[in-house]
Amino acid sequence: MPSQLPPQFSSSASDKACRKAIRSQIREARRSLTTEQQDSFAMTAADYTLSRLKQLKAQRVALYLTNDGELDTKPLIEALWQSKIEVYLPRLHPFSPGNLLFFRYQADTKMQKNHMSIWEPKLNITQMLLPHQIDVVITPLVAFDLQGNRMGMGGGFYDRTLANWQHKRKPLPIGYAHDCQQVGSLPCEHWDVPLPFIITPSHCHSFEL
Known about the structure:
Blueprint: H1 13-31, H2 35-55, E1 60-62, H3 74-82, E2 86-92, E3 100-104, E4 111-113, E5 119-121, E6 128-129, E7 136-139, E8 143-144, E9 150-151, H4 157-161, H5 165-168, E10 172-176, E11 197-199, E12 204-206
Parallel strand pairs: 1-2, 1-7, 7-10, 10-11
Antiparallel strand pairs: 2-3, 3-6, 4-5, 8-9, 11-12
Helix pairs in contact: 2-3
Catalytic activity: (6S)-5-formyl-5,6,7,8-tetrahydrofolate + ATP = (6R)-5,10-methenyltetrahydrofolate + ADP + phosphate
GO molecular function, one term: metal ion binding
Cofactor: Mg(2+)
């Protein structure tokens, strides 16, 4: 397992070029989905995910608010609330660049946009949990392969958050993506955290790690 220290991020020029090409291709593919497809896929994926979370007896689930054509999480959030499962959202750590904090998300939670124009909960320490206090983290991703490898946007936020999940056994990471985000294989580095599950509108992929 990785050390307790947050992973550092660097890469060769060829790997960076490959990752950039994959990100561009897959982001364009998911943006091309129609509104009707997005709505249908989001509902189906939410059903798959809620079923899996109930099997896992998860009571605290962190996820993300959809941005840039990602698989819409709103139906899943609504389903979690209806099932009395606590929902948490990430926000950028104000004092530790590259890291995330997680805050309880409810219908009346006060929100604000960060410097990347992504909505996140306002800083309220009474609503914060540490990652190991969360049962499951539903992770966004740009691309994935059938070895459980995940490619994010390149900031390393979730790789840092999940670097020691297998050691602590929490939080369990589950990838969430459109089927069109699957690729044959991904270039991987030592800091990349593979996922035990990736859920798409058509399938729940399970990987032995």
